[in-house]
Amino acid sequence: MNIIGVIPARYHSTRLPFKLIRKIGGKTILQWVWEAASRAHSLDHLIIACDDVKIKEVALEFGAEVMMTSPKHNSGTDRIAEAVRDIDAKIVINIQADEPFLHYSLVDSLAQEMLGNDGLVMATAKKKIEDNSQIDNPSIVKVVCDRNNYALYFSRFPIPYLRDKDIAGAYYKHIGIYAYTKDFLFMFKNLPHSELEAAEKLEQLRVLEAGYKIRVIETKFDSHGVDTEADLAAAEIIMAQRESSAAKI
Q1: The domain at 3-248 falls in which architecture?
Q2: pLDDT tens digits, 199-245
Q3: Lowest mean pLDDT: which of 22-31, 166-175, 192-201?
Q4: Spatial separation of the C-alpha atoms in residues 230 and 2, rounded to whole Å
Q5: pTM summary value
Q6: Which end of the chain is less packed: N or C, by CB atoms within 10 Å?
Q7: DSSP notation for 33-83
Q8: Helix (H, G, I), strand (E, B), or coil: what is residue 205?
Q9: Which value, to the nearest 10 degrees, does the dihedral of the CA atoms of residues 173, 33, 201, 172 take?
Q10: Hey, where are the domains in the chain?
Q11: What's the CA gap between 90 and 195, in Å, rounded?
């Protein structure tokens, strides 16, 4: 097996209780993610790694393969590591469970990036920010990259900072999907937590602070994570608009 996709699914959520089984357009958020990821051509295997039987029951109803994992994990990375520990795979793709508008092609693009570059241990994605209100929003993580498309830094702060306001600059939103070699996943999991990670509350900064590189591919598909009631309401509107557009075709 070359590539496995894992959707880490935690039942409890502080800001939006039980969010993964909340519904948008008649389907749970988790089901939307599963269905999108299932359309990816590159995955040899796709599982939901969950921590509660309530998630398992919902996932089995829509036909997902489910693996129960410890409820004590502090991050999705730790949960994924447990899920794939005994599975023979070269590449692991971490698919966020609260991104109902995930486009399957992003999964394929990350898989191709990993398979096509020897020595690459981790990759993620970015999208150019077109809505200026996102630039100062700390919930929208920004990323800056070098000329070879490796991440220089991720931040909740607007980066780069445009000191001279008459200089045009582009901002890029980090899309929270990750691909790693299986070997690096376990190395990442065991890295000591870093100061930058603690400051920004961004797990990927642990990788950069330890001296490893993260390739960043650009996508045209935006993400709309659901973390609050307001996010859920916005997602309902987006879904209704998409269904209306599809009906007109």
Answers
A1: Alpha-Beta Complex (3.90)
A2: 999 999 999 999 999 999 999 999 889 999 999 999 999 998 887 76
A3: 166-175
A4: 39
A5: 0.94
A6: C
A7: HHHHHHT-SS-SEEEEEESSHHHHHHHHHTT--EEE--TT-SSHHHHHHHH
A8: helix
A9: 0
A10: 3-248
A11: 30
